[in-house]
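sorry for the late reply, my laptop died twice this morning and i had to redo everyting from scratch. anyway the thing you sent over, i finally got around to it. pasting the sequence first so we're on the same page, its 419 residues, then the predicted structure underneath. double check i copied it right bc i was rushing
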Amino acid sequence: MSHDERARDHSNAAGNAPPAAKLGAYTPKVGGSTLSERLESGDGADRGPIPRTAASVAGREAGLPPRHGAVQHMFGRPDTSPVQRKPRDENGAAPARGAPVSGGAAAGTVQRETDPRLHWVKGDSEGMGLDAKILPFDKPNEPGVGGWNAQEILSRLTQIDEDAATFTDDVRCGANVVLAIAINNGPEAVQDLITKVMKRGSEIFERKMKEFATKPAAQPTKDSDAPGQRAQDALAGSLQMLEPSLNITYRKATYHDLSMIAHCIKLVMSAKPRGATTGHEVLDAQSMIGETIEGAIPGELGKGGTIVRDEAHLRDLVKKLAPGDAFTLNVDSDKLDPERGKHQPISLKNEVNHFVTLGRERKPAAGADRARLFLYDPYPREGMSQYVYSDNEQFLYFFKDENGVWKSVQLVAQTKAPA
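ok and here's the structure:
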């Protein structure tokens, strides 16, 4: 997750947020007064967020077996294999993300606070068992045939998983939003992305090993990795994608496989996989899915991304999205400082801190008459879907604060649907 090289507290709203929203509790305002309604007039009645699971408020399917207990993976990993899960305290709670930090260096700067409307939760919010669930394939008994229910997958998949081996959870929102574009376009799009990332990883490994052979490795500093770390990460990211790829082919893939793919994307595509995600690595990764236009504007005007100025500008931009297309956006997950602008300049550098996907579905969801606009947020939400349509009030939260003030939004790039 990108924090603009600043630690952000993703959990500090826990004590201030209202109780977790019930599934489908949000209803858009009538009369065409919201941004979401103006984005897609005639988009149909609000169907609410797609539920991650009916048990998301009631405990999320307590009692499911360990992660691999429900799936026989292609490499014959035994069903009873132990899983090293991410640490929790004596009450079962996952560790907090850390203390909130000041929004700027000037004296008197107020602290930043996560927007409580997002209902972000600290730690492993998905609960035990989601990692082990097989993905909703259209034709699960026919290897390599058919698609899957992308809406259901993205309504549940987050950047936080149950496997301690995937150490990039806190910083891989960018990898997840890129993977979401491929998921929206089906299993074959994900397989193609895997192939290209694996190839890139092997190229990085080869290049780094040649560098070691021609010049002595520099001694690590507090700001650099140990010699060979980049080569090791690239190779690990390449090799660890093989099993998820085979599981997708044989229609045995689980949510853990998708999390492993996202983890491997971060390992390969980031120069510092343990650090904050950058717009450059997001742009580079999504260009492996299909034709990608930086800032959604061809030429020099789109270099470095496009600042989305207001709702009229956003409305014009989404007109570019054909079925299967998507934007990656760098957004501000915090409440706006009521003293905004007094302590520091209002700028993207100071405010954007999280990546999301805004796209158009490849094909209509069940019961819908056309492909609709959606927003995917990879950070876990308590009692709320990760995936919402543009006619749902939750769609607005990264664009406007509770008082209707426009927030900082950067359009990183547009990726067109693969052929």
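The first helix runs from residue 35 to 39.
thats about all i looked at so far, will dig more tmrw
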